[in-house]
Amino acid sequence: MSTTTTDLQDEIDAIEGSHAGHDDHHHGPEKGLLRWVKTTNHKDIGTLYIWFAFTMLLIGGAMAMVIRAELFQPGLQLVEPQFFNQMTTLHGLIMVFGAIMPAFVGLANWQIPLMIGAKDMALPRMNNWSFWILPFAGAMLLSTLFMQGGGPAFGWTFYAPLSTTFAPDSTDFFIFAVHMLGFSSIMGAINVIATILNMRAPDMKLMDMPLFVWTWLITAFLLIAAMPVLAGAVTMMLTDRNFGTSFFDAAGGGDPVMFQHIFWFFGHPEVYIMILPAFGVVSQIIPTFARKPLFGYSSMVYATASIALLSFVVWAHHMFLTGMPVAGQLYFMYATIMISVPTGVKVFNWVTTMWRGSMTFETPMLWAVAFVILFTIGGFSGLMLGIAPADIQYHDTYFVVAHFHYVLVTGALFSIIAAVFYWLPKWCGRMYNEKLAKIHFWWAVISVNVLFFPQHFLGLAGMPRRIPDYSLQFADFNMISSIGGFAFGASFILLTYIIVDAIRNGEPVTENRVWESAKGLEWTVPTPAPYHTFDTPPGKKQILAESSHIGEH
Amino acid sequence: MLGSSKKYIRSSQKPRKSILISLFNNLLKLPKIYLLPILLSPQFAFAEYGFNLPEGVTSVSKNIYGLHMIIFWVCVAIAIIVFGAMIYSMIFHRKSRGAVASNFHESTAIELLWTLVPLAILIAIAVPSTRVLIDLENTDEADMTVKITGYQWKWQYEYIEQDISFFSNLTDTQRNAIKDDASREGMKNYLLEVDNHLVLPVGKRIRFLMTSNDVIHSWWVRELGVKQDANPGFINDAWAKIDKPGIYRGQCAELCGKDHGFMPVVVEAVSEADYATWLNDQKEKQKAIAASSGKEWSQEDLMAQGQKVYSSTCASCHGVTGAGIPGVFPALTGSSIANNSDPKGHIDIVLNGKAGTAMQAYGKQLSDSDLAAVITYERNALGNKVGDLVQPSTIKSAR
After folding, report:
1. Catalytic site residues of A?
2. Are B208 and B239 in contact (CB under 8 A)?
3. Is the confidence at residue A10, as pLDDT, over 70?
4. CB contact under 8 A, B13 and A148
5. What 3-state class would DSSP assign to B341?
6. Pairwise CA distance, residues B258 & A281, whole Å
C-alpha cells in the first residue's frame, strides 16, 4: 500500500477535526466551492441540507401557485388537466421528500452534535454522501416534467394501476428518484441513531437529552423501518411496468389494493417522520420564551414513543373506502383515534409549560405558538377523519387537503421556520431583523389561514381533491383560498430577504446564550458556533445545568 | 340574515367577466365570512349554504351527518378549553406585565387526568361510530342491485335484475363550457350533468356493486351517504334506501387520470310508478338500437352519429381534433391504423382495445352501429381521408 502513515493520520484528523499537531488547514473549512462538495463537517452539511430544502420549498411552492391560479375561478384557463395532475403530484413529492424531510435532517445535522456535546456526526463521510444524493434525485424527479408524456401525474400517493399500466414513460425515472431519496433518508437516519447512541457526552443519560434529540432518535427509527417499504413498493411498480409481473394487476392474480397497503405502511409512519421532529423543536422553543422548564419531560418522551409505535398499526385508515371488511375498519378506527391521546398529552404539556411562565414573544416563540394552535386544528380534523363512517363523506375531498396542510404547513413547516429563527443567530453570529420578521410572521400566519381554512368548507360542500376545475358553487371559497395562497406564497420572498439580510448584514451577536433563558449545550459554545465544537465533551454538572427540564434530577 | 346568506350563495353561481371585476365583487362579499359562526349554529339548516355536509336522503347519510356533528362539537369544546387556556396565559403570563415564571414542571395527577379524560371521550365517540359503521356495511336483504363500473372517464350502470345497462357521460354542453366562459355563464350544475341519469326508485333498498374497467375510481353521492372505491378486478358494495324523490349529484372521488374532474354521477330518484315507466322505455330503446344495427347506413348518417360518439367516447384521450397528447395518448390524425385502406386493424383495436394501455375494448361498451359510425368518422374526419364506409354488419361479423 502506498498510503503513508501521515496521510492516514491527516485523513482521520480531517474527519475528526483533531488538533493533534497538524497543519492549520484542518482547523477551519476548506476554501472555495470544493469545501461544500468534500465537506464532512456536520455544520456544513446541515447548512447544505437546509439550503437545499429551501430551494425545493420554493420550487414546490411555485407549483402550488400554478395549482391555486388554475383553481382561482371555474373553467380551465391556464393549464391542461394532465399538466395540472403533474403539478399536484410533484408539489406533494417535492414538499415531502425535497423540502420538509431534508430540512429536518439539516436541523438534525446542525443541532444534534451541539445538543449532546459531540464533536460531529458519527459517520461523517456517509453524511456527505447522503446529502449529495439529494440534488441528483431532486433534479431527476423534476426532469420528468420535460420528458415526452410529461412527469408523474398520479398523485404523490401513486396508486396502482394508474401509476403502472396507465402511467407515462417518465415513471421509471420517478421510481429511480424515489429509490435515491430513500437511500439518502436511510443513511441520514443511521447516522442520527449512531450519533445519538454513541457520540453523546459520556455523562449524558438518555433521559438527560433535549426533546429535539429524543424526537429525532425516534424519527430515525421510523425512517429505517418505513423507507425500505417504500423502496419495495416502487420496485414492485418497476417490475409490473417493465418485467411482466402482476403485483398490482388483478388480471394477473395481483391486487391494486395491496399497493395501497404497502404504500400506507410506509406512508403513515412517514407523516410522523415529518411531525415528530417538529414536536421536538417546539419543545425546545416554548420553555425558552416562557422562562420555565418544559412541563412533563418524561411524559413527552413516552408520548413521542407511543405515537411512533401506533403509527405502524394505523395505516389502513387511509383506505376505509377500498372495501375493507367491517372488522378491519373497526380496528383501524379504534387504533387511529387512540393516537389523539398521546398527541393531546403533548399539546396539554406545551400549554402548561406556558402557564404561569414569564413569556416574551420573539419571532421563534410566535412561530411555536402558531404551531401549537394550528397543528391542533389539524389534529381535530384528523380525529374527525379517523371516524370510519364519517370518513365516507370526508375521504378524497378538500377536507382532507385542509387537514394535511394544517399539520404539514402550519405544523411541520412552521416548526422549521421557528427553528431557523431560533438557532440562526447561533449558526452565523448575526441577529435577524426582529421587526421585519414579525411583520412576516403575521403576514404568513393570516394568509395561510385564508388559504387553507376555507378548504374545510369546500370539502364538506362536496369538492373532490385533485380536480383542475369545479362546479360553480365552489367558486367563492376557491377564490378566497387562492388569494390566501398567493399572499402566503409572496411571504416567502420576504422570508428569503430576512434570512439573507440576517446572514449578510445582521447585527453581530456575541453572547453564547443568544436568548436570555435558553437552556441547552448548544448555548455554551461561542457565537457564531466555531467550525469544530466539543473537542472535549461537557461534564455532568454542565449537562444538568443546561437541561431544559431541570428538577427532573 | 337568512335571506342575505341565500343571496350570497346564489350570487356564487353568477358568471365572472374578468378576474379583476370578480375579485372586486368577492372582496365586497368577504365581510359575510364573519357571519360564519352564526351560520354554523345548529338552528340553521346550513347544508344549503355550502359550509357543511348535507343531511342527505338516506338513513346512512343521516347517521353519518349525526356523527359528524357530534365529533365537530366535541372538537369545538376541546378547542375552547385548550385555546382558552393558551390565550389567557399569553395575555396574563407575559414578562411585559411583570409575570414571574414559576418553576413547576410535572404533576402525575394532572397528567393522568388529561390522559384518561380524552380516552373516555374517545370511547364515547367510538360507540355510536361502531353502530353506524356496522349498519352501513350491511348490504343484505336488498330489493334490487345496480352494478356500477368505472371507466376512464365515465360510469356504466347495469340493472342486474332488469338486463338494462348504459353509460353515463358528462354532457357535451358541459364539456364545451370548460374552456368557454360565455357558455359557462349561468350554467346550472356546471360539470355535474350527465347524458344518462342513474334512475332509482324511492323506498327500495338498493345494493350497489362497484368495480372498474381500468384504474381505481370512487363512486360518490353525498346525499346518499355512499362513497365506495371501484377497484379493477374486484367488487365492492354499498347500499341506500332513498327517502325522497329528487336529483342527487356527485363526482368521482379517486384520482383516475386526466379527466378525473370530469366524470360526474347523477342519481335521479323517482316514485315506484315512474320507475316502472322508465324501465319500460329503456327496454324499448334497447330494442330499437338492436334493430338499427341490422340496416345499411348512409355516409351522412354514419359521419353524424360517428361525430357524436367520438366526442363523448374518444375525444377525451385522442383530442377533439385527433391530435392526442404526445407520449400519453397517440394521435389519430395520420395514424397508420386509421389510414390503412383495410379497416380490419382499426376495427380490431376499437373492438378489443390494446392490452397494457388506456385503450379500452369498446366492443363491450358500444353498439354495432355506434362502433361502425365512429370508426367511419375516424377514417374520414380528423384530417384523415380514407374514403371508405364501415357498416354495422361488418362490426357484427368482426366481433
Report:
1. 91, 120, 156, 184-185, 268, 270, 272, 283, 317-318, 343, 346, 465
2. yes
3. no
4. no
5. coil
6. 40
Q: Residue A26's pLDDT is what?
A: 52
Q: Which helix (DSSP H) or strand (DSSP E) does residue A342 occupy?
A: helix A340-354
Q: Are A495 and B32 in contact (CB under 8 A)?
A: no
The predicted structure's pLDDT at residue B329: 85
Least CB–CB distance from A330: residue in B51, B130, B259: B130
Instruction: Give contacts of A82 with chain B, Cβ < 8 Å.
Output: 258, 325, 328
Distance in angstroms (rounded) separating the CA atoms of residues B267 and B250: 8
Query: Cβ of B52 and A457 within 8 Å?
Result: yes
Contact B373, B297 (CB under 8 A): yes
Give the Cα separation of A430 and A28 in Å (integer): 19
Closest CA to B238 of B210, B215, B264, B212: B210
- Mark yes or no for CB contact B82/A323 under 8 Å: no
* Chain B hits for A147, Cβ within 8 Å: 327
C-alpha cell at A24: 492549520
Longest dimension (CA), chain B: 96
Determine whether the interchain pair A356/B191 forms a contact, defined as Cβ–Cβ distance below 8 Å.
Answer: no
Instruction: Give me the residue from A149, A472, A551 closest to B13, CB to CB.
Output: A472
* Buried-exposed string B143-166: b where 16+ CB fall within 10 A, e elsewhere: eebbbbbbbbbbbbbbbeeeebbb
Per DSSP (E only), the strands in chain B are 144-151, 154-159, 164-168, 198-201, 205-212, 217-221, 226-230, 236-241, 246-252, 264-270
Cell digits of residue A302: 413516552
- In this complex, do A390 and B129 lie within 8 Å of one another by their Cβ atoms? yes
Phi first, then psi: give them for residue A276, nearest 5 degrees.
-60, -45
pLDDT at A550: 54
Distance CA A522, CA A529 (A): 8
Cis geometry, peptide bond prior to residue A29 (ω within 30 degrees of 0)? no
CA dihedral A53→A58→A62→A65, nearest 10 degrees, is 100
Q: Average pLDDT of A3-10?
A: 53
Answer yes or no: are the C-beta atoms of A420 and A498 closer than 8 Å: no
User: CA-based angle A99:A104:A107, to the nearest 5?
Assistant: 125
Chain B nearest C-alpha distance from A104 (Å): 27
Query: Do A259 and A154 form a contact (C-beta atoms < 8 A)?
Result: no
Alpha-carbon dihedral of residues B80, B83, B86, B91, nearest 10 degrees? Answer: -80
Instruction: State the pLDDT at residue A12.
Output: 55
Q: Say what the pLDDT of residue A113 is.
A: 97
Q: Do A81 and B106 touch (CB under 8 A)?
A: no
**Given pLDDT bands bounded at 50, 70 and 90, which one contains residue B77?**
very high
Query: Which of A79, A396, A398, A456 should we substitute to test contact with B (largest number of B Cβ atoms within 10 Å)?
Result: A396
ipTM comes to 0.90
> Which among B176, B154, B184 is positioned nearest to B263, based on CA atoms?
B154
pLDDT at A202 over 50: yes
Q: Which three cell numbers stand for residue A176?
A: 429511480
Buried b (16+ CB within 10 A) or exposed e, A359-381: bbbbbbbbbbbbbbbbbbbbbbb
Count of Cβ atoms closer than 10 Å to residue B26 Cβ: 18
- Set of chain B residues whose Cβ sits within 8 Å of the Cβ of A330: 130, 133
Chain B's closest residue to A161, CA to CA, is B215
Cα B210 from chain centre: 13
> Which strand (E) or helix (H) includes residue A507?
strand A507-508
Do residues A351 and B89 lie in contact, with contact meaning Cβ atoms separated by under 8 Å? yes
Chain B partners of A384 at a C-beta cutoff of 8 Å? 68, 71-72, 75
Summarize chain B as % helix, strand, coil (round to 5): 50, 15, 35
